[in-house]
Amino acid sequence: MIYPIVAYGDPVLRKIGAEVEKDYPLLKQLIENMFETMYESHGVGLAAPQIGKAINLFIIDSSRFEDEKYPNVKKVFINAEILDESGDKWDFEEGCLSIPHIRENVKRHDTLRISYQDENFETHEETYDGIVARVIQHEYDHVKGVMFVDRLSELKKRLLKNKLINISKGGIRVDYKMRFPASR
Ligand code: NI
Fold it and tell me: Where are the domains of the chain?
């Protein structure tokens, strides 16, 4: 099943994702549907708030950026906590399925250490760097109620303000299903 992607401006994107319990109803199905939704919209990551569920769950598939240094990481992150970020900050042009047609450079640390549970509720503690860390940082922000545009300069935010309002009203064309908070 493909979920509509929640657009910028929906309050669910601002909630801190609740901890996911082991007995969360139909979790396997939810994860499967999230992968289907992500592939349908050509995303490299998708967080539960983006399909309207304020829980600490996100998925990534970094195959688009796969090379010798960064083999593909396709994973489910449940109850993730970033324990530490380190390394030089670098710019990368980010986009977001909830904010179509806007891409901006965001500075983030190169390396992170994260603890999370997988779909079988096994706990892991792992280190990622480079582009894979970048995808994780972006999705992790979503489960903390943060969006990449929050990380831009005040000037950039002002310049984007009307575009963002337009997105929340549904005044854009996208080739995947979306749900707009301010449309009638
Ligand atoms: Ni995003």
Answer: 5-183
